[in-house]
Amino acid sequence: MKNAIGHKVWAIAEGYIPPYGNGPEPQFTSHETACILNTSDQEANIKIWLYFSDRDPVGPYVETVQPRRTKHLRFNDLKNPEPVPRDTDYASVIESDVPVVVQHTRLDSRQSENALLSTIAFAGDSH
After folding, report:
1. Pfam families from the xrefs (predicted)?
2. Is residue 65 part of a domain?
3. CATH number of the domain that 115 lies in?
4. pLDDT tens profile 20-72
5. Contact 95, 46 (CB under 8 A)
């Protein structure tokens, strides 16, 4: 692509990592994922903040997405500045220094009949 597509700020208002899963790991571990697409010719420097109903935000979690690549970031794997809590409602804001596209996915494997949810994140203002 000639030009990068997407936005520099994204929000996922609904976040929740189920406390347990059903099935072989890691494929069936209950999780939240931010799927980030970088179509630009530059590395995307990503910062993620988490917001909670009962405490101050946490972040930034810092990640990179290589040029013209995609990266699926499991929130379960985010550890620094602190692990993302399980069984807790949260929201996230994702910022990038180049335009990217963000999609949100959740696998809820608490029952043997697994549930998969996926939706595009909310594209925020890019300035």
Report:
1. ASRT
2. yes
3. 2.60.290.11
4. 665 556 555 555 789 999 999 999 999 999 999 999 999 999 999 999 999 99
5. yes
